[in-house]
Specification:
Helix content is about 25%, strand content about 25%. The protein is an alpha/beta fold. The radius of gyration is 18 Å and the shape is globular.
């Protein structure tokens, strides 16, 4: 059940009065099993090793690259482990995070908020913010830290659609759903005209659409799901295809960030560029 802070925030930022947000979410035990896959594995980000790592506040935790679900015989890159920075996600915001927070204009929507360090930091600054995440462990940890959070997919109905001043897509979350253009187009509908989206890109040139699973150091794992990894150039292309304008780019502590703007009605969208307004650490 939403906590009081979350309910108050949702009430202040909700769309038209007569429209109720879609709240259908899966509960533990009601997943649809995928024939031919490991039926003992938990659902992605929900009851797999990710939830255990968030509760403990530490890893090690990885995304393991798998053959595509539609091409099970394609073993290119299979077995690669991509580290997940659980300790940083569960810690207080660092200097790179602070530069992102300084650019936030409320209300702020954090997509895939994880343990909620950014949502809690914004609340402490007096900025209205809401995190959304499919993981019950992530939502619970965000609330314990003083942030407001909803357990919900970004592709479900969200509070305040079309009214958010800033949308955050940090920590590799541009990969959500495995289709960055579709994700960014969805966020364009969620954001207010003239708003900004602050997105974190991979720190190197990459444009990958993957099938992965979450796995810990003991081999315990969740079920396969689609994911994506985009460097700055690929993220700029995806942003342009989804109707965003690249307005800034900077690096901090070996992390790469883009600022995207949603044009006002009638405003022309500039061609995407990997440059944008460059800033330096």
């Amino acid at each position: 059940m939403p906590n009081r802070a979350e309910a108050a925030l949702a009430g202040r930022t909700a769309g038209s009065a007569g429209r109720r947000p879609h709240t259908a979410v899966l509960e533990p035990g009601d997943a649809v099993l995928d024939p031919g896959r490991d039926r003992s594995a938990g659902r992605p980000w929900i009851d797999d090793p990710y939830a255990r790592a968030l509760r403990a506040g530490r890893g090690p935790l990885f995304l393991r690259r798998l053959p595509p679900l539609d091409r099970p015989d394609d073993a290119a890159g299979e077995g690669d482990l991509l580290p997940l920075d659980v300790e940083r996600w569960c810690a207080a915001p660092d200097a790179a995070d602070a530069r992102v927070l300084d650019r936030c204009t409320g209300p702020v929507l954090d997509i895939g908020c994880g343990p909620g360090r950014l949502v809690a930091a914004l609340a402490a600054r007096g900025v209205r913010a809401l995190g959304v995440d499919v993981s019950p462990a992530a939502v619970a940890r965000t609330r314990r830290g003083g942030g407001a959070a909803l357990r919900r997919s970004v592709f479900d109905r969200l509070p305040g659609e079309g009214r958010w001043g800033t949308v955050l897509l940090m920590d590799g979350n541009v990969g959500i759903g495995g289709d960055p253009v579709a994700l960014l187009a969805r966020l364009r509908a969620v954001a207010a005209p003239g708003s900004r989206l602050l997105a974190e890109a991979a720190p190197y040139d990459v444009d990958e659409h993957l099938t992965v699973r979450v796995e810990d150091a003991h081999g315990r794992h969740g079920r396969p799901f689609p994911w994506a990894r985009l460097g700055a150039a690929a993220l700029c292309r995806a942003a342009g295809a989804a109707g965003w304008t690249v307005t800034g780019r900077w690096t901090a502590q070996d992390r790469t960030f883009l600022e995207l703007g949603r044009p006002l009605p009638g405003q022309r969208t500039a061609p995407p560029t990997a440059g944008g307004r460059r800033e330096h650490p």
